[in-house]
Design brief:
The structure holds two protein chains of two kinds. Helix content of chain A is 47%, strand content 8%. By secondary structure, chain A is mainly α. Chain A folds into two domains: 2-33 and 130-249, Cytochrome c-like domain (Cytochrome Bc1 Complex, Chain D, domain 2, Orthogonal Bundle); 37-120, Cytochrome Bc1 Complex, Chain D, domain 2. In chain A, the strands form three sheets. In chain A, strands 6-5-7 form a three-stranded mixed sheet. In chain A, strands 1-2 form a two-stranded antiparallel sheet. Chain A has a two-stranded antiparallel ribbon with strand order 3-4. Chain B starts with a helix and ends with a helix. The chains are: A mainly alpha, B mainly alpha. Chains A and B meet through helix 6, strand 3 and helix 11 of A and helix 1, helix 2 and helix 3 of B.
Amino acid sequence: MLAAALVGVLAFGGEQFAMSDADRAMYAEMLENNPADMDVESGSELLDEYADGDEGLAKFLGVSEDALPAYIAGFPRYIEKLGMVVGLGQTLQALMADNGHKPLALKSEDMFSMLAYTKSIANGENINIDVKANKQMKEAYALGDEVFNTERGGRGLSCMSCHSPDVIGTILRTQPLPDLGSKENKTAATWPAYRMTKSSMRTLQRRFQGCMNNALLAVIPLGSKEMVALEVYVTEKAKGREIAIPGLKR
Amino acid sequence: MRKSLFMMITVGVTLASAADLRSAIEVPDASAIIAKDLLGPAKKFTMPKGCISDDKEAIARGSFIFHNLNGKKAKENPPKGLSRKGADGKEKQYGNCVACHNIEGAKGGGNVGPDLTNYNEFFMKTGVRDNKFVYQKIADPRIDNPDTHMTVNLTTGLFTEREICDITSYIVSIKK
């Protein structure tokens, strides 16, 4: 089913599109064997070492292990213990500290692996973020909306310049502008993902930084209030989509 | 091996307090970064004297800016009067207009914006557009279209007036 969707996305001919036949063949092969599966596996081991695995995580979050997948499908969330809306990475940092460890940096490779594993616990669940759950989530969503629409940087662009409904599907330098909420992309449900063009696994917040960098917007740091808010905003667009981690991207 | 490393960085096995937990997570500030990076209001510009020219070198610079992203990515060396680095020593940003526009000789031209092929024939000769319009469009497209998806090139300080003139000269020129 996933393969069929991807064939749809990749079935462009001609040199206008960046994916060559060789790229497509590699893509097909990686679909069978996503290199980021290894990152997810190592993330699982790290979570065992740092925090007693799924069990320790569930305990920390105050949910049963059975309820854990659906709970994770609702991130970013307001976590009462922390008094703020956080992404999975920050939650893992708190978990590590709670277990007496020095938290890994949000941008470290091991953190990306742990984050990917943690989100993969929710594989098969649908994204169930609730942006109206409480005052904090409402604020985070509103801030995310604002950041998404803020024109800035050397070229005066906002995320909306390239991801608004009226330009989706048009071609920006060989790349179709993706609909971040569509059934085909289900963006927030497919990150962390392996990026073929970067030969590494990236998180959703890291992907945002990629767009900022390309479009000449000053890059904002992982974990900042604005970054988490952007994640809330973009995740809401993919609400109801089935989580499948790790994703595979161009 | 990994385990022993963990032991070294372990700071204790007691449960951390809520305040400790909060201070253990990264929440860096981004608001200052964004505030410094904001786009100013839409601005109307007057085309400087002698702006549009059919000088080959000016058109070559305009073309180079149109077709390239930045000094690092450009495959060919920039033409006379343009360099790979800006006055600040950092890599120079070019227009990357081709990302959104097709035009004569475009490689991988996009279609977010209109096709600018045969611009002179279709838009200039017919009187639909004039130099002033094109100059303002590139300098700050919001004057013509407040909801534009196009980049802002002069209000942002990305280019100089001279460079906007070069790009305009290129677009309105007759291409072979």
